[in-house]
Sequence to fold (354 residues):
Amino acid sequence: MAQRKIIHVDCDCFYAAVEMRDDPSLREVPLAVGGEGGRGVVTTCNYRARAFGVRSAMPGSEARRLCPGLVTVPPDLARYRAVSQQVMAILREMTDLVEPLSLDEAFLDVTEVEAFRGSATLMARHLRERISREVGITVSAGVAPNKFLAKIASDWRKPDGLFVITPEDIPAFVWDLPVEKLFGVGQVTAARLHAMGVKTCGDMQASGVEVLAGKFGKQGYRLFEMAHGRDDRPVVVSRVAKSVSVERTFSQDLPDRHACDTVMPSLVADLNLRLSRKGRHKPIHKLFVKIRYSDFSTHTLERVRDSVTEPELEDFQPLLEELMPRTDRPVRLLGVGVRFRNDDAPVTQLRLFD
Fold:
């Protein structure tokens, strides 16, 4: 079997990049999308704002305290969706094997692509140049033999960067890689690993699979594989689905329900992007909202909504309000989704993780 060639493409500060493209006066200032008003939350921000410590999911009041000159603009999801579709169309001209993860990032499997002398590096360079020229925003790309390493690589030289990990590079590259870079390793798992004296993938390799499995169960085997740079997940274009959902885990807890309200539009936009792929999907039977609070308690509420064909923010808002009677609880994860009415006809769903 041919060595896989995977490209991960990630738009740089996507919403902010679109705003700066369309209003040149915003290019030279620290900019946040969202976060205006007393209770707004930053959806994304440009790199000038990040230099002050501003981050996505941060309350706007804290962002302005860190960066007194911060300029904020309200999100324009319809415009971002249109730009996303433009970017995805360019990616699909390279290969049909495209797996979007959200509006602004996707995996491509270019193993069988013969253009550009079969060089994934040249393909990634071409895609970055085309998107810059035709869409007017920058993207960072990572090239690697698998999805896990390609995603890490795309973040390595952000913004506007390209980083390549060849099969020969893998042992040296992962040896010093901090465990925090591994998919699924958040603060809690990282702290448990550090307590074991494991801070890098090299440390993890030295620990051995038995020790990791003993501490973390099935996840321990997955961690051991990733520590060696191994990941056999394919790029998945579609599958038969009973439901479609999107969820987002925040690096900084959302402080209250008002903050959740500011994040909901982009979640619903991502959900509709997934539903619209290939232009056909099953009749919707139910809508649901999922919340994980800062104490890790998780709650889901679903309601029958047979009449909905393209769910809108207003369709989910009553569920969020009912699910979250206390408006002041910090939220770690927020998700929205739909369940379909019957399972007979095939339906397209983009798979975020296998």
Summary: Residues 257-276 form the longest helix (20 residues).
